[in-house]
Amino acid sequence: AKPGAVCRHEFTVGKAGPRVFEVTARRNGSSLDAVLTLRKASGGKPLAQWDDVTNKVFVGTIPQGECDPIGRFDFTEPGCYVAEVTDRTGHGGKGYFWDMEVRPPEPDFEVYSTRSTLPLYRGRALSMDFAIVRKDGFTGPVTLEFPKDVRVRGNVITAGVDRITASVTYVGRKHLDLRSVKISARGKVDGRT
User: What stretches in the chain show pLDDT beneath 70?
Assistant: First the structure.
């Protein structure tokens, strides 16, 4: 609420294990350039500190959202801890509001195409780029599935890869009119598709 303020949120960890900390501010129109610091409630050096998120995709996201920190910490013991939120620039006021979520990791992914249209002609291959946003530690492979009348090469985003270029060819017999095409992205998270 004031320039230079440090907002402290004390919480108890009852069981050891990983937790994800996510601050939402700029994505909701706040002026806050948040920095999130985690430490024991008894004080001492920070256990972790998170600042801006590095966005490797720049598709389907708000670039200002990079000012909202997201981090993961593996608690090795139960106890009392403190999460501190400050403004990177030391400013504050009514326009510096924020929310914070603390939760167990929920590994997931989103896949984006860098093209909104694709002019397909029978037998002619075209390149199509895809980018993946990996969330909460998801590292597994993802397979892109196209309609039956479209042949694709390079449709697997392997573990640890963030971008691919697939070769897409229409092999159907009918002339294609303008239409929407559903492309599915499938991966396994904790053993389930």
Answer: 54-65
